């Protein structure tokens, strides 16, 4: 019985073919038509049609020839990186960091700036001004950005537009607060948990590249965890997976002793940078002012600082033992200011404690190689994937 393709079916197949070819060009780099046919399973005539359409849309270009057997040369194609732009923003307590990347994921401009007031009425104008400066560096406007990705603490409630569990960002827990990012990005935007983005960064460019099951644990001004299971970010039913700040691990019951602990969480209260300073003061170093100061003194052999670090080791080890028992991970990557600055003091002792706290072989623990850029790198990775789809969708909409 003959089959008849409708116009909509034909259009859908064309879009699917172009999407497959576009994706493989990014994955393979400069590539020939035969290589694309082999990678996609599409016929060479179908590849030629897709390349022609993508070329007319300004998404793909010819980049030269590659010598082949018997003197035959193959024409090579690559995606045009400047066909789209991604704005990535990391909103931290001390700094806001912005980068602009092209569709290849290459960062072409960057601005790091001290944070002002985190309240929306103050932060949004600051981000808008910085985004204008950033895009001007490459000769485009904010409106030319294909997609923006904002990395923030807490959980984005998509129903109300509020940020929950982000005590360091006052005012963002109000309904509709997240929607106000349109002031910064007139283009589509995503709001993602910063630690989840850091986990994506590690999975794409860092220590998690060849690891199917790992977690990125951030310890700094706050605490959090991004979870990768079977190579994919795990969010949980409400996007709250990894909120280890609220693990019941601490000194006695700080939820009863300290009213702020209920808002920050028991583990974060004792294990964050502030918690390390509090431990040092409690142990007799009344003048301790920062976690970095405690770590530096511990490296120099100062006894009180060394005891404060041991307290941190115990807190972190117990938290990671709980994580290990539930998730059975291969790797835990430590990040955040405390995780990176104090990694040399924490990794070995925490690993030793885990051997006594868990029944089976514990995961290996390593310090992030991405440092303070983990969130931005993850935001670029997420943004580039989505932006490529957007530019292709816009092309389809324009051509019918």
Count of helix runs: 14
Q: What is the quaternary state of this protein? A: single chain
**What is the tally of beta strands?**
15
Question: H/E series, N to C?
Answer: HEHHEEEEEHEEEEHEEEHHHHHHEHHEH
Structural class, by secondary structure, is: alpha/beta
Radius of gyration: 24 Å
What shape does the CA trace take?
Answer: globular
Provide the CATH top-level class of the largest domain.
Answer: Alpha Beta
Biggest sheet architecture = 5 strands, mixed
Question: Remind me, CATH topology of the largest domain?
Answer: Nucleotidyltransferase, domain 5
Distance between the termini: 30 Å
> Could you list the spans in which at least 5 consecutive residues all have pLDDT below 50?
none
Annotated CATH architecture of the largest domain: 2-Layer Sandwich
Spatial strand arrangement across the major sheet: 6-5-4-7-10
Question: CATH superfamily name of the largest domain?
Answer: ATPase, nucleotide binding domain
Strand content: 15-25%
**Total domain modules:** 3
Fraction of residues in H or I helices = 40-55%
Family: Belongs to the ROK (NagC/XylR) family.
GO molecular function: kinase activity
Organism: Asanoa ferruginea
Protein name: Putative NBD/HSP70 family sugar kinase
Topology diagram in text:
Blueprint: H1 7-28, E1 31-32, H2 33-40, H3 44-56, E2 60-67, E3 73-79, E4 85-91, E5 95-102, E6 107-114, H4 120-136, E7 147-152, E8 155-157, E9 162-164, E10 189-193, H5 194-205, E11 214-219, E12 223-229, E13 232-234, H6 254-257, H7 259-264, H8 266-271, H9 273-282, H10 291-299, H11 303-327, E14 331-335, H12 336-341, H13 343-357, E15 364-367, H14 374-399
Parallel strand pairs: 4-7, 7-10, 11-14, 14-15
Antiparallel strand pairs: 1-3, 2-3, 4-5, 5-6, 8-9, 11-12, 12-13
Helix pairs in contact: 1-3, 1-14, 2-3, 5-14, 9-11, 10-11, 11-13
